[in-house]
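Justification of computing resources. Each target in the renewal requires a structure prediction run like the one illustrated here; the chain below, 305 residues long, is used simply to show the kind of job we budget for.
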Amino acid sequence: MIADTHRLRLLKEALDKLHKGYGPKYLESDPLLFAHDYTTPEDQELVGFLAAVFAYGHVPQILRNLRIILAPLSGSVAQAVRKGTPSRWKRAYKGYAYRFQRQEDLILLLWLLRRVLADSGSLQASFLRFYLPCRHEPLPIRRALTEWVGYLRETLRSGPGWSALENPRGIYHLLPDPASGSPCKRWNLYLRWMVRGPDGLDLGLWKSISTHHLILPLDTHTARICGYLRLTSRTAPSWAMAEEITRTLRNLDPEDPIRYDFSIARLGILARCTRKMDRNHCISCELSRICHAGPVSRQRGPMVS
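Resulting structure tokens:
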């Protein structure tokens, strides 16, 4: 018990220091940047949704793709989505492509957002239909997300061009199902943006969801670095790994466990922590005292177990 208490104290000290070092001035390295360009909650949650579902690939690619998507939706994005039509979007996004997605996938996604707004009034109201009934369960986020994604995918099947779609892989990639065991980084990222804050980073728009329930948005950077910190015994990113890491973080901050996500991810995104260890980076890293992978740790021996 003493060893566990000592370990958690060192972990909290290091992560708190890291958290303080990576604030809003680092937003330019994150797709969340685009949501901060808007002032109304309905625009912010829609821009956040688009930014989150397309948040895969290298950061410069992600940011460039989002600029292309948002350009034809200038002004109020919510109004542009509500009043937009597939024919108008076909003209606006002629030749559009981003990795797994093509023009037809983007048009379906925008149509889906229009339907959700028509059905529920907002993305928040739509998600709460699935979250509120299970909010008192031990792990409500996975169930709520699974049911919400089921609703989104089912709604898509009545969308324009669905019957002619040769392969739904592109659009389904944007709407991953937590029931598959995937870490669903982009869904958990979107919920972090909407629920936490406002703190200059996350927006704090969805007040009815507890920050205690949020799950770490697990990507290759956070999975690797959390492995270095021995926050997980698993080796492959999965929903189970994300839950395991989040449980440990709740010991550090029960009410807001994933506040550390942005800062941990910066270490990887900004190449301060890479698979190829850099002694200079390791020595100056805020996590050097508790990291089990870097040269500082190997010289001194493990500080935490």
